[in-house]
Amino acid sequence: MLGKTKKYLFAAGMTVAMASASVAAKADSVADFYKGKTVTVLIGTSAGGGYDLYARVLAKYMGKHIPGNPTLVPQNMPGAGTLRVANYIYEVAPKDGTVFGTFSRSMPLSPLLKLPGVKFDSLKYTWLGSITKDTMTCISWKDSPVKKWDDIFTHEFKVGGEGKGADPDVYATMIKNAFHAKIKLVTGYPGTADITLAMQRGELDGVCGFSYSSVRSTHDDWIKTKQINFIIQGALEPDPNLPGVPMMIDEGKTPEQKAMLKLALAPQAIARPFVAPPGIPADRAQALQKAFDDTMKDPDFVADAKKLGLDVNPMTGAQALAMLKDIYKTPDSVVKETRAVMGY
Amino acid sequence: MFDAALHALVALGDPVRFAILFGGVVVGLALGVIPGLGGVVGLTLLIPFTYKLDTYSSFALLLGMAAVTTVSDLIPAVLFGVPGTVGAAATVIDGHELAKKGQAGRALGAGYTSALVGGVLGAILLAAVIPVIRPFVLFIGSPELLAFSIFGLSMVAVLSGRAPLKGFAVAGLGIMLAMIGSGAPDGTERWTFDTIYLWDRLPLVPFTLGLFAMPELAEMAISRSSIARDASNIDFSLTAQWRGARDALRHWWLVLRCGWLGTILGAVPGLGASSIDWIAYGHAVRAEKKDPHFGEGDIRGVIAPEASNNAKEGGHLITTIAFGVPSGASMAVLLSAFLMHGLVPGPDMLTKHLDVTFLIIWSLTIAHVLGGLICLGASGIFARLAAVPAGKLVPIVLALMFLSAFQGSQSWGDLYVMVIFGTVGWFMKLLKWPRPPLMLGFVLGGIFERNLFISTEIYSWGWLYRPVVIGILALTLWIVLKPLRDNFRDLMRTFRSKRGPRIAVNGAVMFNIFLIAVVVWALWASWGWPWEDKLVPHTAAYAVLLFAGVNLVTELFYAGAEQAEGHEGGRGHGMDTVIQGQLPFARSLRHFAWMVCFLVVAYGIGLLPGLFFLILLHSRFEFGERWRTAVISAVAMTAISWLIFDHIFALVWPQSILGEMLPALHANFDFI
Fold this sequence. Notes:
The complex is a heterodimer of chains A (344) and B (672).
Chain A (H helix, E strand, L loop, with lengths): L1 H17 L3 H13 L3 E6 L6 H13 L8 E6 L6 H9 L7 E4 L23 E5 L5 E6 L15 E5 L5 H13 L3 E5 L4 H9 L5 E6 H13 L3 E7 L13 H4 L3 H11 L7 E4 L5 H16 L1 H9 L7 E2 H11 L4 H10 L3
Parallel strand pairs in A: 1-2, 1-3, 6-7
Antiparallel strand pairs in A: 3-10, 4-10, 4-11, 5-8, 5-9
Chain B lengths: L1 H12 L1 H19 L5 H8 L8 H18 L1 H7 L8 H12 L3 H25 L4 H6 L3 H18 L4 H16 L24 H20 L14 H13 L1 H15 L6 H15 L12 H24 L5 H12 L13 H31 L5 H17 L5 H19 L5 H24 L7 H30 L10 H19 L5 H27 L17 H5 L2 H24 L1 H16 L4 H22 L8 H5 L1 H6 L4
Helix pairs in contact in B: 1-17, 2-4, 2-17, 3-4, 3-16, 4-7, 4-15, 4-17, 5-6, 5-7, 6-7, 6-15, 7-12, 7-13, 7-15, 7-17, 9-10, 9-14, 9-20, 9-21, 10-20, 10-23, 11-18, 11-19, 11-25, 13-14, 13-15, 14-15, 15-17, 18-26, 18-27, 19-25, 22-23, 25-26, 26-27
């Protein structure tokens, strides 16, 4: 109630000061537009995963921060590792501010790495932001001879994969190629749960490209009882939960190698990205961006997320876009090498 | 352990919790009846409700729902030949035949009883293995999975019936179809036609509906009959179901065996619902030697898959609870419910949270009993549908199938897949090519390939020497040896027999040539792939060429000498004779023309409006129903579909050309 009154006062003040009704009219027009409408939140994965959960919790609280309080309805649109939804939001979804959505963190770099099937330009989306950042890790089971980073140069490190282009495959391939580590990638497991099961029965030593948040949400007991070793962490900044675990970027020897690692690890900074289609009316875009930021500060949202074991460590839309613009300035030669090293 | 079990039972005895469990059962039964909807959709729907419930009530609700979708999925399978969930596909073969003979009530009764016993058996087994659950699961590695998939594939020899050449050929084709998409060992996108739709492989639901359900509906539409071909001898009475129930009890040993089989295979991660029912069916065909008429309405063909299909839930839970490894899509969603309630699957579930584990087991047991009893009580109503004339039923069921197929991955592609494989299935049925081997190859091909590469990569040839692998492979040999020997002898007999009078070029020969042409094209299109990506699909392709080639020779030169009939064949009455006439041929052409017209119209004006016109015009002009009937069916069905799929399931309707041209219209009516 108070917020609303404030907004009106603010609007009225502006009107008087600028002797113009346009700003107030605009704010009203956004509220008028959204009033009684449904906003669709598209989720690029099937129900039940982390991306799904984050989107559903966001959808539960974000409506009340958008002027006009539309109803937010989450819808799953799985396909092609979220590429389908990324293309859909860019190409097909109505550009009127009634649709936004989420896809895998690796999507925004797909156009830069020239991956097949991409029909979008990451820098043209209306970026709403990311709910949290994350850290990629390599883990090994307690019985494995590989216990720390140095060991992967002396012992064979057998890690599981899910097929070309999946996180465990990409990161394992990258570490193997960039650092000439003795990694043996065994690919073809249906999912990370199957990989960790194979790890427990000794078929594999461990897995790379497992995000810390997933380890914590699915196997917190392993961390507490030290069933697993964290071999290395990959993110732009060190994770406070992983003290003493080496940073992948620090292991890069040359400036080119560091640039390459930065490019490859950038997605971890926007681990739960949300975007609206490009070209939606500016006032509605701003309203959605502001609503996203406000939701991140909403105590109810934060409490609910905490209850569900979800991290909230947000980045605004503007910050996410700025970071991506920076990454997209990486010289072609480095991009090319990164592509090769990641095994694409 | 007993304390925990008792504690959980007392907790579930709380009237409110029991009511919640009951509510879950009702939702689950409703979802199971609608093809394409099942446990996954139900869990997605119900999980938000559990935010506010305590842990016990939450799992009572979720398990109550998830347990019974496989009880009621039998209803459409028996009545329309439309499997309610993919786990009921094998039930169609004999269940629907029984319905055609006017014995829908008996088939349903037998099915429910087997489901009830199977489900309870699965739960009991789950409880029994709790102390040894973790070592048990840890014993199953990739080599064992590979052996299980080979075991499953070997059922092709059993399920091909008297048409082994055709069976082996389509099994190879099924393996090739399973290779479509991304996920190849070396990363090639195989046979995707440059669409990202096919990256995720052919979706199972539209494929299954096309292969099994479309041909049954086509047959009903073309023959203009009700489900029961001879309406005069339908047994509606409640006694029919009890007769079925007694059938199931009489075959108690089969029920038990298939229940155990279902639970054990359910605990093997990767072998999903879609293959377990076929393996159980194959087991029944192979083992039940007394007076078999499988494929022609043998009650044991209903009992075996239903018992295993319901028992597998207990097996699925073994890996989910003990390791957090979901063995299927619905378990993956259930896993998120565990995490949401602060439960981490793993050793804790067997010690600290043993009460929750037992609550799950009790919920599973009680839900199956409730579900079975509710269905038994209500099935008289459903059995009556068997007498409804085709004109009133076909357009509505057809519309429902299109909506269900669309649940596959919510793309236009789903509808194309269903119509394409519907047409293929129709020809296979007509020309007596057995469809179960195709399905088996399709559902097991991917698992086989994946584990072949993992096993050889890690163990080289050593994977063959593991004790469980040796055991499973020995069992496989025992199963296939006799059918293979018999088949080979029959084939030789055919070749020795006198040649047919002349070379016969008929529909059967044309289809055979078409199949060979498709496979040759697929080989040509994949010639440049890296060898890892070619290994399995090309081996399968050469197998198809070999078997289809030999079959072509027998069809061309020995027509009449060979009695090539699959398990679905061998009826020689009813449809097969009717079809030969002039009028039905025109009708079958018209039937498929309706499908294509519908796709075009739906693409133009939207899926839901398209369905409206399909029901309206199909009822009125194809079946000559009165306008009043046609309008009522069309309006009611469209409205109900809209309410269910738009409001409850938040379906993303596909955008039509009209919607693209008039964005304002699409913005207000999102189904256009």
